[in-house]
Design brief:
This protein is of the alpha/beta class and about 350 residues long. The chain has 15 helices and twelve strands.
Length: about 350
């Protein structure tokens, strides 16, 4: 199992300089990759380009580039550019986001996200393979019918194949990840629940005559280092409450649905009611400590080693960590501790 760094969004308390320090520390420690995300703030491509220019060996990945935010051709152009500028270190993580962002920010309908993703990735792959891009699907048709457009081929040749990842939560989307992608980007991954997720991915792989060999099962975990694991859970509460309670509408919150499938139905309903009712602090307090512990990395080096061993045994191939601390120095130290813990096993 490899380690990765997940920087999340370019917002909040960390400056770009802080994110670069964390990335360079991860590279020194032998981390496999660094990932960043976008929602409706700064785009992910600018940050990844900046990080790639100031590192040498660590791979840079988008977790995620939003499907509604770019045409498939634009994503292919961007992926080719990042792949060549980084010397072959780019990994393309895609996701449909949710209806609030897709429809409210990008003005793109969210309906039929599985079909939209399937159309989208097929076009991006054709372009990066430098095929003449022609596609007739439910969501995208290239060239545009009745127009002067014609099938075109990407002008630049990527220096290496671009690995494709899908951020997926629901069972059908997990199957799609297995069928069409090279890896999965997960959140709230717990060894006790992993079999259901990996079974869905494996079903998608089987559909195209493949198994999980060479498929990257990757998930992200908040990382809090300390002697008291229960106390370490507290800084993770705002993140967990936001996703379970407020990441989406009452009708469409994929993380709330995941918490329900994981056996936390009553808590998930209460957290959502409180969060959407403007009582965020109360929602944070209602997140079960067990849920946080199972989906985070909490504790001292020995406890982290035990958790990493459990994750590896469950089938995880890349463990992406988001260090939580009072300042950047604390986060740098946390990366060193988790690297040492992995070395211990």
């Amino acid at each position: 199992m490899r380690l990765a760094l997940n920087l999340g969004y370019m917002v909040g308390g960390e400056t770009p300089a802080d994110q670069l320090r964390l990335t360079q520390q991860a590279e020194r420690l032998g981390f496999d990759s660094v990932w960043a995300a976008e929602a409706y703030g700064a785009d992910v491509v600018t940050l990844l380009s900046w990080l790639a220019a100031q590192t040498d060996t660590i791979a840079v990945g988008s977790a995620v580039m939003q499907i509604p935010g770019r045409t498939p051709a634009n994503t292919a152009m961007t992926a080719a550019g990042l792949q060549n500028l980084s010397g072959g270190r780019f990994r393309l993580g895609l996701g449909v986001s949710g209806p609030q962002v897709s429809e409210g920010w990008h003005g793109v309908p969210f309906a039929k996200p599985l079909g939209r993703t399937r159309d989208y990735v097929q076009i991006v792959r054709k372009a990066l393979n430098r095929d003449v891009v022609e596609h007739q699907g439910e969501h995208f048709t290239l060239p545009l019918p009745g127009s002067e457009g014609k099938g075109l081929k990407l002008m630049v040749r990527p220096v290496a194949p671009v690995p494709f990842y899908l951020a997926a939560v629901g069972p059908k989307n997990l199957e799609l990840a297995g069928e069409l992608f090279d890896g999965w980007l997960g959140l709230f991954y717990a060894p006790q629940f992993a079999a259901e997720q990996l079974t869905a991915i494996a079903a998608g792989r089987a559909r195209v005559g493949k198994d999980l060999t060479d498929f990257d099962v990757q998930a992200s975990f908040p990382l809090v280092v300390g002697s008291d694991a229960v106390a370490c859970a507290d800084p993770v509460r705002p993140y967990a409450a936001l996703y379970v309670g407020g990441m989406g509408s009452r009708k469409n919150n994929f993380y709330n649905n995941l918490a329900v499938r994981m056996g936390y139905g009553a808590a998930a309903a209460e957290i959502q009611d409180l969060y959407l009712g403007g009582r965020q602090r109360e929602a944070m307090a209602k997140v079960p400590t067990e849920f946080i512990d199972r989906t985070s990395l909490l504790g001292d080096r020995a406890r982290l080693a035990d958790r990493l061993a459990e994750l590896a045994e469950s089938g995880l191939t890349t463990c992406a960590v988001t260090p939580v601390g009072r300042n950047t120095d604390d986060k740098l130290a946390a990366l060193e501790t988790v690297a040492a813990a992995l070395a211990d096993i």
